[in-house]
Amino acid sequence: MPAVTSISTAAPTGFAAVADARAEALEKRRAAKQKDAEQAIETLKQARTSARDIQKEMARRKLEQIKQRIAMLKMTASMDPEGTARQIAALSRELSAAVKAYAGASGSSGGISVDASATAGAASPVAGASADAAAGAEDAAAGSESLRAAETAVATDGAGTEGQGAGQDDKPDTAAARAAEMYRQIQSSPEAQARERDREAKKAEARDAEDFLKQARDLAKQLKDILQKIAEAAKAKGEDGRKAVEDAEKALGQMQQEISFAAGAMPAAPVAVAA
After folding, report:
1. Helix 123-160, helix 190-235: angle, nearest 10
2. CA-CA to 238 of 20 to 30 Å: which in 31, 100, 157, 253?
3. 3-class SS at 206?
4. How many domains does the chain have?
5. What is the pLDDT of residues 119-134, one digit of tens each?
6. Distance of CA 266 to the CA centre of its chain
7. What is the pLDDT of residues 157-179, one digit of tens each?
8. Which structural domain range is residue 118 located in?
9. pTM
10. Residue 175's Cα: distance from chain center in Å?
11. Please, where are the H alpha helices in the chain?
């Protein structure tokens, strides 16, 4: 009978070991799949970011080309007012396309149209603002949670040691200093550093967008100024001259709309939230 008892006692132990090993193997496989999924997502993000950066760079180069062509146009505008008006129309459309491309690469739908797409696109700034607000709220919540965790830890530590150092000279600000140090450690965690990198990247993107729009507005103003100077001379050429001026004015108006829309749709710099 003792031998039987020994066998019956050992059996459950063996089954438990097998079950534990199987559970551990399943957990390892689950963790491996999770890691593979995260890596795949990160790869897709990097590829998308790279494509967007290329599109933005192409738009910047297009602005530089337009700038050079405007400089040449200024020198010859008075020689051929009608031809100048046509060139202004063409450059205005190219500038509109460049702005639209940059705005699209910045995450907005881009585009100004006379149909329903303009109304649909107008929702993008609101959606972007909501996303920025949600991100800010999340960062604020994370910061507050970290501070509460530090304060709770310090309070618990203080309660556990209360009465042990009755004769010790403990400075009044010791607890606050410990809380600040723990909070600093929490904020230096990989998650907090990743949030900070993301904020800095968004700030840089917003600065680049503002610089691009500033250049686009300046070029638009130059084209408008040239047209104002040669409009009367072009119209004096007859019907073709008047049509060229009207076409240029229309293209300039659409370009101004595109720039205004892009200004509202491009990402703004994230607002710093105090913890």
Report:
1. 160
2. 253
3. helix
4. 1
5. 333 333 334 444 444 4
6. 9
7. 544 444 444 444 455 568 777 77
8. 44-129+205-265
9. 0.56
10. 39
11. 2-76, 81-105, 116-121, 123-160, 174-187, 190-235, 239-265
